[in-house]
Amino acid sequence: MNVSDDLFTRLARSPFRQRFRLGRAEYDYAVSKGEPVLRQHAAAFVAQRLAPAQPENDGKQTPMRGHPVFIAQHATATCCRGCLSKWHNIGQFQPLSAEQQAYVVTVLLAWITRQRDQPAPPARVTRTPPEKDDDPQLALW
Ligand SMILES: [Zn+2]
């Protein structure tokens, strides 16, 4: 099943959707797991969290971090049935068909692949603020 460039063009026009990027941890995870594993995870999340006619906590079922697929869901507007309806023309209040689930998984993997092809995001730096008399010269004594 094809994911149209048109979808990504439309998503690119949404400042909200554009904000989502893989963090370093999710990027490394995506690279280390590889596509077949990510595809399995995506299929499982979609089946559990999106496919039922009325998913539990619909609209809040997708965490903002913790797995590349979650980020991809927000970035591609496949995070809940409301967004699937608005962006992908998939009607609410009926179970997703196998074909619709496969489509969502394809969209998610297409987004992750695009992200993975970009340079790795910088690792988060934890730095302690310098203390007041943190004069490097004092360390010489
Ligand atoms: Zn949503």
Report on the architecture of this protein.
With 141 residues, this protein is mostly helical. It has seven helices and no strands. Helix 4 (35-50) crosses helix 7 (98-116) and helix 5 packs across helix 7 (98-116). The mean pLDDT is 90. Zinc ion (ZN) is lined by residues 79-80, 82-83.
Quick structural summary:
Helices cover 52% and strands 0% of the residues. The protein is mostly helical and 141 residues long.
Secondary structure: elements and pairs:
Elements lengths: L4 H8 L2 H4 L5 H10 L1 H16 L17 H8 L5 H8 L9 H19 L25
Bound molecules: zinc ion.
Sum up the overall morphology in one term. globular
Low-confidence stretches: none
- Helix fraction by DSSP (H/I, runs of at least 4): 40-55%
Quote the distance from N terminus to C terminus.
Answer: 68 Å
